[in-house]
Inverse folding.
């Protein structure tokens, strides 16, 4: 399969063709691959004296180097991103959750005859708890509530729908002319 040295292609087979290799981050000897080293250098790793690395696109998507309008800048060879992220309070905009409820306490105009509230109903002097007539419940009391933080801090998958394929790089072929 002909190619230009350093060219990367998607390949649907489970093998790399002759003169091609997987983009798997492999460290290669410079002395055995001088043409490819002349193109890649140490952009993807290696010490630059005896070794250099191939790009590692296993489980990753390629993104164009540079910056488009309104987009982030990416250096050639920069690896970024995560498979999952855990959202916490710092990731969410400030907000509150409100709930409302009413508390109704039955009260009677007769005076109480027990000093213990256990299993008893509030007793009162007439109109002590309510302006309503005697032997009635009190008026509902608006009770604003603020709900606290909830959640389990479990990581959230951020992978887009994907199909596993092999990225391969041309190791031996036509050396690309510089323009």
């Amino acid at each position: 399969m002909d190619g230009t040295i350093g060219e990367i292609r998607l390949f649907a087979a489970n093998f790399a063709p002759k003169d091609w290799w997987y983009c798997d981050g492999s460290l290669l000897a410079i002395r055995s691959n001088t043409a490819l080293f002349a193109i890649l250098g140490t952009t993807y790793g290696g010490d630059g004296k005896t070794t250099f690395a191939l790009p590692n696109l296993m489980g990753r998507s390629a993104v164009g180097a540079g910056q488009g309008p309104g987009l982030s800048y990416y250096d050639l060879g920069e690896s970024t991103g995560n498979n999952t992220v855990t959202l916490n309070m710092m990731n969410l905009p400030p907000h509150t959750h409100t709930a409302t409820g009413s508390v109704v306490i039955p009260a009677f105009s007769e005076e109480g005859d027990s000093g213990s509230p256990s299993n008893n109903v509030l007793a009162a002097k007439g109109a002590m708890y309510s302006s309503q007539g005697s032997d009635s419940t009190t008026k509902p009391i608006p009770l604003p509530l603020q709900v606290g933080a909830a959640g389990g801090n479990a990581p959230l998958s951020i992978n887009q729908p994907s199909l596993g394929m092999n990225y391969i790089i041309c190791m031996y072929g036509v050396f690309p002319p510089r323009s």
Q: What stands out?
A: The radius of gyration is 36 Å. DSSP finds one helix and eleven strands in the chain. The first strand starts at residue 8 and ends at 11. Helices lie at 34-40.
